[in-house]
Amino acid sequence: MDTDLASRLLVAARAGDVEKIRALLPCVGNPEEDGASDAPGGITPLMAAAAGGHEEVVEVLLACGADAAKCDHQGRRAAAHARAAGHTCLAKRLDTVVDKDQTIW
Questions:
Q1: How confident is the model at residue 103 (pLDDT cuts 50, 70, 90)?
Q2: Where do the ANK repeats lie (predicted)?
Q3: Residue 97 and residue 80: Cα distance in Å, rounded?
């Protein structure tokens, strides 16, 4: 994993910089979209973007393979970060992604 890339993704996600996110994640399947394993509190770029209410960044990260079901060190998912910051519509969107991924056919 490229920890420098993961750190830059986290900064861009917190800032809501969708163009930077797109530039940093040109393809799907990179492990960096879920952040560095040693990130403070286990916060991922998706969680940071959700907490900031940066909907477009959230969508780019999801399209690049970010895991909406991943939990931080307190057991909270990206949807919980959005909800705690008052971004209820974004939280519902993230809940839908997790529910869809957990559906067994």
A1: low
A2: 41-73
A3: 13
| Residues 38 and 79 sit within 8 Å (Cβ to Cβ) | no
Asked if residue 76 is part of any domain, the answer here is: yes
pTM of structure: 0.72
Residue found under tokens 């492990």: 31
Q: Does the pLDDT value for residue 104 go beyond 90?
A: no
| 100-105 mean pLDDT | 60
The values of phi and psi at residue 5, to 5°, are -60, -45
Q: Supply the range of the domain harboring residue 11.
A: 3-99
- Which residues have a Cβ under 8 Å from the Cβ of 5 and sit 6 or more positions away? 24, 30, 32
